[in-house]
Design goal:
This is Periplasmic heavy metal sensor. The chain is an all-alpha fold and about 150 residues long. Helix content is about 80%, strand content about 0%. The radius of gyration is 19 Å and the shape is elongated.
Length: about 150
């Protein structure tokens, strides 16, 4: 294997891993533990003192988002498979590799956007006081040190 090919492959793998890490981060907002060890989801339901109506509306939002998230995660896995095939067939950073990387980044970006839209959809169900607590929980989840 030539040095150029190894360097290209290394750059592709680093870029792919970075992209995967970025795509993983968005949904982790919803799964990350809050300061007291509870997940973001649990914190929303427990700490915001939701009414039955609010809880039902948020549960419906979460079910809908779960379907959307799974579809986008599947698209990301498909893009990774395309990238593997493109690397194998082209043996260089060619058009198929570029298209596969772009496909992955598009799916990753859509997942990040969908996650943020979901967070704001949940926020819209809350009272102003609940929204202030919710905002603090989101900020804490986004800025918490990885475990």
């Amino acid at each position: 294997m030539s040095r150029t090919w190894r360097q290209t492959l290394l750059v592709l793998l680093v870029a792919l891993l970075a992209g995967m890490a970025g795509a993983w981060l968005g949904p982790q907002i919803l799964a990350r533990t809050h300061g007291n060890g509870t997940s973001f989801h649990e914190a929303v339901h427990r700490e915001l003192d939701l009414t039955a109506d609010q809880s039902a509306r948020i549960d419906a939002l979460e079910r809908s988002f779960a379907v959307q998230r799974k579809a986008l995660e599947l698209e990301m896995r498909q893009a990774n498979a395309e990238l593997a095939a493109a690397i194998e067939s082209e043996g260089a950073y060619g058009p198929a590799v570029t298209a596969s990387v772009d496909h992955f980044h598009m799916a990753m970006g859509e997942l990040q956007k969908a996650t943020i839209e979901h967070v704001f959809a949940m926020r819209a169900v809350l009272t102003p006081d609940q929204a202030a607590k919710f905002d603090r929980t989101v900020v804490d989840a986004l800025t918490a040190e990885p475990r």
